[in-house]
Amino acid sequence: MNAPAGGGAEQVFARFLDLERQIRAARDVPQLAYGLVNDGQSLFGYRHAALLIAGKVQAVTGVSAVEPNAPFVAFVEQAVAQLFKQGVLKQARVIAPQMVSEPVRADWQSLSALQVFWLPLVDRHGEVFGGLWLARDVPWNPSEQVLLSQLGDTCSHAWLALQPRKPWRLRWTRKRQAALAAVVLLGLLVPVRQSVLAPAEVVPLGGRVVAAPLDGVIAEFRVKPNQSVKAGDLLLRFDSTTLKAQADVAERALGVAEAELKSNSQRSFADAESSSRVDLLAARVEQKRAERDYARELLNRSEVRAERDGIAVFADAERWTGKPVQTGERLMEIADPSQAELRIELAVGDAIALEPGAQISLFLDSDPLQRHLATLERSAYEAQPTAGGQLAYRLDAGFTEAPPRIGLRGTAKIFGERAPLALYLLRRPLAGLRQSVGL
Fold it and tell me: CA-to-CA distance for 95 and 86, rounded, in angstroms?
């Protein structure tokens, strides 16, 4: 396209005023950007124009959406960056290819017209925040340069009216960005206290475990969960039908053995054979007596009684009633309600270096706003599977004040040693990266 022909000054001036009106009438930034690169093409006859804000192309002639990686966009941004460093873009002027480096000059010849006019956009303080790259095939005459300079003031005014704040790239200069990066790096080196969260439960301290004394079926529970009991109180009863039968049979077998021993003892004075069997029958009587005593002992064990004062700690009686159990299987625990400790399941992935005496804060699910303080007393070396199927280390902690009610659950926050903030924030990502790449 060619420059407007001379002689029609009034017509050119009218078209220029109409162009200014269109620019000021833009309702938003995208509409203004589109008008800046397209509306003046018929008046000034440029082949293409590019609008740059803070060094980045925002609009191009004949393009609805700018592709950041397009060759022309990359060339314009690189050329403007080099010219900006030279300090030649503060005023409206013609840009010559000799002002840029050789690689950019080669892209200029293939991607843009040779006659380029730079129209800067200036804020209220006289600082350049953007500009228009106008390229065409014929040189720019002085009258056109005057009109473009006037148009630049209009474009700057319209842009600042719609977007009064500076682009962040201009607000944050390289020095400010470097200072901010330095502050962030120094902040990452600040030592902070490591901490992890883990599920926790209040459990009895020094409680007496009540285990099944024999193999059998539980007939009934005589206590309820968290019920107070005294030493000697009946806790539960096993089904004793089989045990009573065994004791009765053992008692009768003992009677038969004793009668046989008595009979042979009386005949031993006259019968040598009966005399030789007395020792064997006496041993058999002792065997039957031991069997009877054992049957009686099992019958006595069918009633389990409390060995100390406290409360009965277990989940549900219905869970055990009618269920066969084996000797040694844990049924409940008799504990002192005033003595409790904190049991924590620390997941393997959250494990940090912990020493005895580490501070712990417990937040109960039933009262999440109140904090209970505790200190770490023991930590397991070996991880074990939890009820949820995860591997976790068991931690035991003692309360520094009055403990909560036994059986309550919550979340424990465990504090470890101090470490740089960067390690505290990136510990889990670094561990995951190490597991992924094997370093």
Answer: 12
